[in-house]
């Protein structure tokens, strides 16, 4: 099998002579893809709506319909998603691959942020004299858990295209396509901090819900 777009499950059923089973498998895969797309559309729409409500995106996306649906955010998300998908149908799919790699990279960056936030939350909570047993959910592997998660995600993030640096001639185009999400994230993050004048919150300045204190 040289074509990576062919499903291995479908190929097995075809060689076994079970053509109907192959069709069923295709239907199952299609259902899974549609489900993933639907959940992604919902999450993206609500994320844009929440950013607008927090003043971090244009206010037009914070408007709701009578049924409580953020239509403007939904329309914007749908249009952008459609345009991103259409890039796969033109040229040699370079733009599409860049977009795909960017979205994948931001997923790892998000997990890096989760690990950092978990560590800082627990540290700040304890340093302010609160009892860790008051938290409804506690990680039994703290602080090793978030540290391990951070290191692992960092290795995966930076090592996604490490083989490009092992060749005699570095494929800078491939390197850029793989790691474009990192500088994009840094530009947006530092740009927001400079524009809004935000700063890191110290452990002593962290605030926690009253029901979790002492």
TrEMBL record:
Gene3D superfamilies: Amino acid/polyamine transporter I. It comes from the Bacteria. The chain crosses the membrane at residues 12-37, 73-90, 96-119, 140-160, 172-192. Residues 6-201 form the Amino acid permease/ SLC12A domain. It is a multi-pass membrane protein. InterPro entries: AA-permease/SLC12A_dom (IPR004841), APC_YAT (IPR050524). This is Lysine-specific permease. It comes from Klebsiella pneumoniae.
